[in-house]
Design brief:
Elements: H1 3-17, H2 22-28, E1 32-36, H3 41-54, E2 59-64, E3 83-87, H4 93-100, E4 106-109, H5 116-121, H6 123-143, E5 148-154, H7 179-198, E6 202-207, E7 210-211, H8 223-232, E8 238-240, E9 246-247, E10 250-251, H9 252-262, E11 271-275, E12 281-282, H10 283-294, E13 301-303, H11 319-325, H12 333-346, H13 348-354, H14 368-377
Parallel strand pairs: 1-2, 1-4, 2-3, 4-5, 5-6, 6-11, 7-10, 8-13
Antiparallel strand pairs: 9-12
The protein binds nicotinamide-adenine-dinucleotide.
Nicotinamide-adenine-dinucleotide is lined by residues 36-37, 39-43, 63-69, 89-91, 110-114, 129, 133, 152, 154, 184, 207, 209-210, 222.
Length: 378
Amino acid sequence: MNHDERRVAHVDDYLTRCGLGEEHRRGYEGRSILVTGGAGAIGSNLSVALSRLVGPSGRVTILDNLSAVKDREPWNVVPLPNVMFVRGDVRSDADLKRVFREDPSIVFHLAAFFANQNSVDYPETSADVDVIGIVKMLEYARLSRVERFVYASSGCAIYGSYPELPLKEDFVSIRLTTPYQINKMTGEMYCNFYHHHYGMKTVNCRFFNSYGPGEAPGQYRNVIPNFIYWAMQGRSLPITGTGEETRDFTYVLDLVQGLVKAGHAEAAVGTEFNLAAGREISIRDLASMVNEATGNDAPIRFTPRRKWDTKPRLLASIDRARELIGYEPVVDFPEGFQENIRWFRDAWPTIQRAADFPPGMSSAVRGAGTVGVHKGER
Ligand SMILES: NC(=O)c1ccc[n+]([C@@H]2O[C@H](COP(=O)([O-])OP(=O)(O)OC[C@H]3O[C@@H](n4cnc5c(N)ncnc54)[C@H](O)[C@@H]3O)[C@@H](O)[C@H]2O)c1
């Protein structure tokens, strides 16, 4: 088996294990589904799962402009007979006309300008992709009478810096610290508008820190792939802050489970809910686990926190998702982490090619002065 085939087998195992059974298979079978951002970390996994659920009589169309992918190669799109990849932009009418000709009944909108540091460096592009992008997607979805529109929102975009934990959906902060957060929150508000005004069946899914197969390391990527990548090369892991900061790391297939259920459950319509693991891991513990798993004995080093990085802890309540859609994360951190390491070993040459760092730099290890320079010059 090559690493794509192993990914498909892993998704098949997961679908059986998490109880996405007959009811969901019947609900999805034969459908035409559109996934934006389907060449990305989460969208690539979602597309595999949907391909299995729609079956041979259905189809999954991926719209992705590959802007987040080094060398613009769709290496992360697993080739499957009922999945069609369209290289295109969510802001382009020509590209949207092309994919909406497939007559999708459900849209999963995951394309985004990822993520916080990227949006600080390029605020206009962030607003263009994340705000104009979702408005265009919602308009096309409305005109095509799409049955459901599921939006990938973000837990970090809603709750501000120091809310009460665990984070519950009724709390909202407008004191956000990056354009990404502002734009992702705006996306939810547009979904709510289309739901209220046109009765469109929109669902806002608030993801928390995804990790797992399909996410390559890079200057704007999450901490887990970057730590694994550096540790596998015997490099010292940089912690921005004290290391006591926590995140609610969520296995990517658990997020996929939540999305699939959000695209199906009637109770999800017009609502928003967290999709998370519902437990915290500190960055210091994470670094130790990564070093241990990879046999890396280079010492951890500490660098100043980035100015926008104001959240000491993230821990989500998943009660609402449980209640509305029957969401239940099934992969605990040790298991998901081992699977992530396995994928890195399996796909190492691909990951090395896909790793997207400008020479000698990662956003996580820039000094405060360097961040200032980047902010100023762009
Ligand atoms: N990864 C996380 O931890 C996390 C957490 C919260 C929310 N989210 C949200 O989930 C979604 C998916 O995240 P991900 O980690 O898979 O990100 P990703 O960057 O891996 O995937 C996003 C994809 O969108 C594509 N894209 C960017 N601009 C586009 C455009 N204008 N037109 C078409 N395609 C475009 C990129 O090429 C990329 O493949 C995003 O909306 C993100 O904001 C992710």
